[in-house]
Records
---
Amino acid sequence: MYIGKVIGNVVATKKDSRLVGSKLLIVCPLVRDSKEKDTMVVAVDAVGAGIGEVVLVVKGSTARAALGIDAPIDAAIVGIVDTMEV
Amino acid sequence: MYIGKVIGNVVATKKDSRLVGSKLLIVCPLVRDSKEKDTMVVAVDAVGAGIGEVVLVVKGSTARAALGIDAPIDAAIVGIVDTMEV
Amino acid sequence: MYIGKVIGNVVATKKDSRLVGSKLLIVCPLVRDSKEKDTMVVAVDAVGAGIGEVVLVVKGSTARAALGIDAPIDAAIVGIVDTMEV
Amino acid sequence: MYIGKVIGNVVATKKDSRLVGSKLLIVCPLVRDSKEKDTMVVAVDAVGAGIGEVVLVVKGSTARAALGIDAPIDAAIVGIVDTMEV
Amino acid sequence: MYIGKVIGNVVATKKDSRLVGSKLLIVCPLVRDSKEKDTMVVAVDAVGAGIGEVVLVVKGSTARAALGIDAPIDAAIVGIVDTMEV
């Protein structure tokens, strides 16, 4: 997994029907000292995350396994980070 | 998934026969502030996307799952973005 | 696999229930001359690694295979490095 | 898939026996304006590509699916690009 | 696959039991003009490669397929490069 910050969300009316009902959040990966990278990933939320929260994201086939649904998903939020001890 | 902009298309007469009939679009990933990266991905369109549109792209084995066909595909467009709230 | 250094750990109360009980360590990949990259990966520990140790990390579907559990995991620590001869 | 240019080939006498008979081509990914990256990928040719041609490359488990053989392959050439309209 | 140079090896006494007996080599990917990147990958040797040799490396699930063993492996050396014609 990697650590990211939820910075927004995506609205897509026209999409694969298996994505209907999924919350699509925009996540920026964090590097050391919690700096945000300028890349963005769209992850499906599995734990009730909100904008501004720091989260754990899994990618690839693991994301499909995380959601447990047959949908075209390659990134999923699987945890909300309380604290990082570094 | 990541967010990208469709910037063109590819014509390939000589190709794997399972790709015949697939629309092959060139997508540039977007970073924050909707800036385009200079990398290009060729994604198979699953939702009727057109040039200039901002789309959701899945990659890897998820792309094959998205299309639901047995073809050599590792990137697929699964949604058209209406708005990003960041 | 790649070589990384364990620099901390993550506490996440709200997470996928299949992650409960997993030790989530923050790892920085090492490049040549053992310099640390500034990226961070959260890996599930499978060998009893501790903070400050240099470890072997596998990623992707291999991480799930490493742990042998049905959990949303895409990075796992599978060895503790004693020495690197370079 | 991504777009790349075939810049050479690899000769490897000592290799996994399942690779015997495979044509191993060196491909440089192209970024916008058809500039070549300085990275190199070795891809197995599935469509009769030659040096200097611009091709479509798939990677990861998709490459094994593309070739349809049980060989240790993670990149395959699945099309020859006639034109890119950007 | 990508092309890399074997620059060393890793000793790890404490590791996943399925890795016991595997030769763990440190590989630096090569870019054009055979320059070495400063990243390092630990790959399991399947062809008898030695330090200083230029090799073909596969990654991800392909590496597990290459070795044909049920071990937590995501990079494998599947060939020794005799010549590159670029």
---
Amino acid sequence: MAIVASEILTRLHSIYSAEDLIVNEDELIVYECDGYVVEKKMPEIVVFPTTAEQVVETVRLCNEFDLPFVPRGAGTSLSGGTLAVGGGVMICLTRMRQILEINERDRYAIVEPGLVNVHLTQNLKGSGFHYAPDPSSQGACTLGGNVATNSGGPHTLKYGVTVNHVLGVEFVSPTGELIQLGGPLGELNGYDLTGLFVGSEGTFGVVTKIWVRLTRDPAAYRTMLGIFETVSDATEAISGIIGAGIIPAALEMMDQGIVGALEDAFHFGFPLDAGAVLLIEVDGLDVAVDLEKQKIIELCNQHGAREVRSADTPAERQLLWKCRKQAFGAIGRLAPSYCTQDGVVPRTKLPEILDFIIQTQKEFGIRIVNVFHAGDGNIHPILLFDERDADQVKKVIAAGDAILSKCIELGGSVTGEHGIGVEKINFMDKLFTADDVNVMTDIRSAFNPKGNCSPHKILPTAGACGMEHIERDKPGRQAAM
Amino acid sequence: MAIVASEILTRLHSIYSAEDLIVNEDELIVYECDGYVVEKKMPEIVVFPTTAEQVVETVRLCNEFDLPFVPRGAGTSLSGGTLAVGGGVMICLTRMRQILEINERDRYAIVEPGLVNVHLTQNLKGSGFHYAPDPSSQGACTLGGNVATNSGGPHTLKYGVTVNHVLGVEFVSPTGELIQLGGPLGELNGYDLTGLFVGSEGTFGVVTKIWVRLTRDPAAYRTMLGIFETVSDATEAISGIIGAGIIPAALEMMDQGIVGALEDAFHFGFPLDAGAVLLIEVDGLDVAVDLEKQKIIELCNQHGAREVRSADTPAERQLLWKCRKQAFGAIGRLAPSYCTQDGVVPRTKLPEILDFIIQTQKEFGIRIVNVFHAGDGNIHPILLFDERDADQVKKVIAAGDAILSKCIELGGSVTGEHGIGVEKINFMDKLFTADDVNVMTDIRSAFNPKGNCSPHKILPTAGACGMEHIERDKPGRQAAM
């Protein structure tokens, strides 16, 4: 596409300054993949708009030159959500990162999509408010990316996922119109298109502005660490806590493998011989959380806890959360490569899926450690391997596939919060009937008639866009991983 | 359409028994309107399916004979959501009212669409669970209708509206396919079409099964009645309560006019000379609600409350809620006819819109009383008139229009929970840009390509279906009322 390239480049140079445009291969390589490192595809051009108007012009240009385009935030997607399938133009939104308004009285903020998640909460410090969804990657991931994948996080057990906190979005449609859905009051009239947009993984357009709900800071926290001999005891305790009508702000499980890695990294004092550790947090009024804490300790003990510790100071609480949020970093100590899976089962099926994961380890000879949002039934088995060993790679793909298929069999599904992306696109046929997939495809076409905006995400894009390409380039490293 | 009618009737008789099919005009007249009594249109045929298969066959038949069709539950819509615009077949779902499953462990129930809202909660009595959304009409309205309009209710301030409690729907698409969206775990993968479906006012198809979330009963309630000299003091108290970080389970305001009518009807002991009464409920753990109650009383007093009473026994609480939920019935004592409006403003704009309503009363010489979900900024001014007086009818229409336009001006919108229906369809152009409306129309077409399913609801249906008809029949009584 050399001639087109030179033409489109000239046009792009009239929209972007030189430092907001990348075409050199050695710079483009940074954008060849995201947190899902298994599949790679370089975009042909990366642009860094600073205004919505630039995004409009870019999208119109892509349509004129019949090029695919894909939005990208920080690139922390774990499912290849920002992979430039088919090449084309990547619209990187990290330079649109302003907070445009904070309205404490009506409890919303207006932000640009490239704002890093935690920066919003940091800006709210002292106001008594925060932004509730807190993905583990919140120190890096952008709010635009959170909108695309409907991100969760440890505190979404009580506070809900991104869609519960997004009141409106402004976006550039795949055909180049600037459209607003919702606003400070949310989407009250007509179809809930804001709700539909959140989680559409870039297939409905490029977000340029977001109205988010602000959440009041809780008056008090109580954070506990329940230490159990076995994973099964820990999951029974979870059912006991939720069954007692307590909704913890967070309820996270870590198994022995991950606890070992965390202890090596952070020296928190985790017991290395315990089968599982539960990180449990309640929030609310002081008296209420004291009562809930007492009840939770009782329930943990009833279900065979060896010990229940408390994080009694803010510093201890912060360290505990640092451990949990940086768990994935600590895994680097366990193996050269790892693949984080993301499955969901009804909470009552947690013991069953965890048993299955143990079996899977044995069957495939792959080590798997677990850290996950137990309260939601959202598992994150982490498959450890060495990517230089082709045999191990194959086994990891097969083991991940087996675990996800088991999730479906147990009435669950293949992603809780990481999205379908390109990674799990082949599972859609297993999850949905042909009629269901047709409805989804029709809806995508209503927004994205040519399929050139984020092609081959969530749903296959007909004919187009070189996914075959990727599979051909990397035999044996496919979507299931 | 006599010939077609005789053909289609024969075919319908092969699907339905005689008692599940209405064609006589004196029986059809019952279905000529819903709670929005201003516009009327008789369906040509009403059917009462008892199975999803019957719905599929009916929809296919309507497509074959090119007839419009519209689903209906209990007909409590306040916006003409079930009006048979263009005649055709009405699919009345009140005989599909079974509870198919209650799963307390995984906290969901599966119900048929014709189940009356309160019957689900009654069935759950003693289990420790209930179904949270509680529209004022909950003793009559159906869950299918709640899904169609995304119904709210007093307790949605804390617990959210219908969409937050619907995990999945099975529906017959406008082209006659039986489709399932979501399920016991909700819609985890792909687009959130369940969320999109809720609130689509019948334009995406006919619901045949619903998966709903069960909510744990709170451990304790505290219910208070704050009595204020003026509406403005009451609204300031509301801002104070919410600003203090308390989220009441319900926060309802009633003005002097409505309090008088309620007192006449129920003899609760409401003070007849107070400017406004706030009904405030908190729920949660005993100690927590005691603290919140104390704080709320303080805040009410700080904002000039004359008195704050408590409903101290379950019987008192129940009577208070009965008063609130039957407020609309009590209005019959005030005037021969009334029109309940439904607007939304940012909560901080409540004093402004209430002042405007007082002005509007004076300007148009129409009495208006107010009862509404103050915590949400969702107003329900009730315009009193005599429908036999054409001049009053005109004034009511104009006054309602003025109030809704003011809501838009204040950054709000024209419906909080009653839906657009046919009533407010002309406001869509004021609320949305042409591009926004185009996106909505495209989305509707993806589900409803011919526009024959619930025509002329939410969005105008091109050319078709005799809405002009209705306007011609009733000059001067139009959509704004």
